[in-house]
Design goal:
Layout: H1 23-30, H2 34-58, H3 61-102, H4 122-134, H5 138-172
């Protein structure tokens, strides 16, 4: 958490065997001085204070909000790039399919498309488009879906305009 290292613990005084001489000199050598103990405690307090300050800074609501916003922005960017690449891939498929329907294109497997639009009527071309959509061709499905949505939007717009005109005439009568 912090770069502050805890001071090394002071070893406990060893138990003196009964045979050794001068127990007073051993106690003087093994027991740390009061100044050493106080400086060790002061160093530990400073390290602990630095760790507490660092935790407080990390857990402050403003900092947590900034971190959450940053992570959310990164995720949005990742999803946006995935969506853009998928859209570009789909656009390429639609363009290939339209080129194939317009004639002289190749099929998705790379073979030559035997479809010759000059020998087909518009009705036959549209019929082929619907057949391909029924077979699950993604490009054809996309074209049919967009066309259907456009027609639905147009009919809703026309219906709303007709209702408004009807209400306006009913209001005058």
């Amino acid at each position: 958490m912090s770069t502050h290292a805890a001071p090394t613990p002071v070893p406990a005084a060893p138990v003196a065997p009964a045979v050794e001489a001068a127990p007073a000199t051993q106690a003087a050598q093994a027991a740390p001085s009061a100044d050493a103990v106080l400086s060790d405690l002061a160093a530990r307090r400073l390290a602990l204070a630095a760790d507490v300050d660092e935790l407080a800074a990390r857990l402050a609501p403003n900092n947590l909000a900034k971190v959450a916003k940053l992570k959310a922005r990164e995720k949005v960017q990742e999803l946006r790039s995935q969506a853009v690449s998928k859209a570009e891939e789909t656009v390429g498929q639609v363009k290939n399919r339209l080129a194939s329907l317009a004639g002289g294109g190749t099929d998705p497997e790379g073979g030559v498309d035997t479809y010759d639009p000059s020998t087909r009527t518009l009705g036959q071309r549209v019929s082929r488009l619907f057949d391909d959509a029924r077979d699950g061709d993604p490009a054809s499905l996309g074209i049919v879906t967009v066309a259907g949505l456009a027609l639905a939007g147009l009919s809703v717009t026309a219906t709303v305009a007709a209702v408004k005109a009807f209400r306006a005439r009913a209001g005058r009568a």
